[in-house]
Amino acid sequence: LFVSKMKLKLAIQKSGRLHDDSIKLLKECGIDINNGVNKLKTEASNFPLEVFFLRDDDIPQYIEDGVADIGIVGENVVLEKKKQVDIVEKLGFGKCRLSMAVPKSMEYNSVEDLQNTRIATSYPIIVNEFLRKNNIKAEIHEISGSVEIAPGIGLADGICDLVSSGSTLFMNGLKEVETVLKSEAVLAAFKSIQPAQSKLLDKLLFRIQAVKKAKN
Ligand code: ATP
Ligand code: ZN
Q1: Residue 97 and residue 77: Cα distance in Å, rounded?
Q2: Does domain 96-183 sit in CATH 3.40.190.10?
Q3: Beta 158-163 vs 118-121: how paired, if at all?
Q4: Which residues are close to ligand 2, an ion, with C-beta < 5 A?
Q5: Cα separation, 60 vs 79, whole angstroms
Q6: pLDDT computed for residue 5 by the predictor
Q7: Nearest-CA neighbor of 108 among 64, 158, 45?
Q8: Exposure pattern of 136-149 as b/e (b: 16+ CB <10 Å)?
Q9: Mean pLDDT in the chain?
């Protein structure tokens, strides 16, 4: 009786680049939710699923804390947050890359040119790892938004930010010089997910994989 009432708690982005495709994926999986953009949560009518609408950056923490069991979030966010969260499945949307960019006028031949520079980014953990792997000593300036303006205002020599078309970089007089990470939306789950939730996750995953197969 308890088990039949058990629900899987899924966190998706409240609004932004991943929101619409996350809802669309659930629909394609045959899961009906009343689209409540202004609500905190909603329930599926035909699957034991509760959907929470959250800021993407907060999703790994909410999963670790048990507020949600699983989430749909960019791989970039999962890797940056370093929470108790596993990547279960890549979802094929939200594709972008985390790239280093420098002013167009700067001579750039290799990663060595980043030596002793100041780099502005919202991804200090991933950038630090990249610099360490490449034996580059650079100063990381963590800023939460509008990273691309940092070189123009003299805050940094270069940036590391998410790019899809590159037009934002171009408009800010920057050129992309290194790809640090290729990212897309993923289904992420708590590392120690309970058996009952895990069973529901397998059901959902089975549907997601069928949707992906049908598209290929
Ligand atoms: P929130 O209000 O939820 O914090 P946000 O502004 O941080 O939203 P979005 O800009 O909506 O986030 O991006 C969400 C995710 O979309 C990113 O973490 C990334 O995985 C993916 N993405 C795809 N293309 C891009 C892009 N060009 N720029 C930024 N993110 C992108
Ligand atoms: Zn965010």
Answers
A1: 12
A2: yes
A3: parallel
A4: 56-57
A5: 10
A6: 74
A7: 158
A8: bebebbebeeebbe
A9: 95
User: Position 214: which residue type?
Assistant: A
**If you measure from the C-alpha of residue 159 to the centroid of ligand 1, how many angstroms do you get, rounded to a whole number?**
16
Residue to substitute in 162, 172, 186 for testing ligand 1 pocket (most ligand atoms within 8 angstroms of CB): 162
Q: Which CATH number fits domain 2-94+184-215: 3.30.1490.20, 3.90.1150.10, 3.10.129.10, 3.40.190.10?
A: 3.40.190.10
Distance 80 CA to ligand 1 centre (A): 13
Q: What confidence tens digit (pLDDT) does each residue in 54-90 have? A: 999 999 999 999 999 999 999 999 999 999 999 999 9
Length of the chain: 216
Report how far ligand 1's centroid is from the alpha carbon of 17 (Å). 5
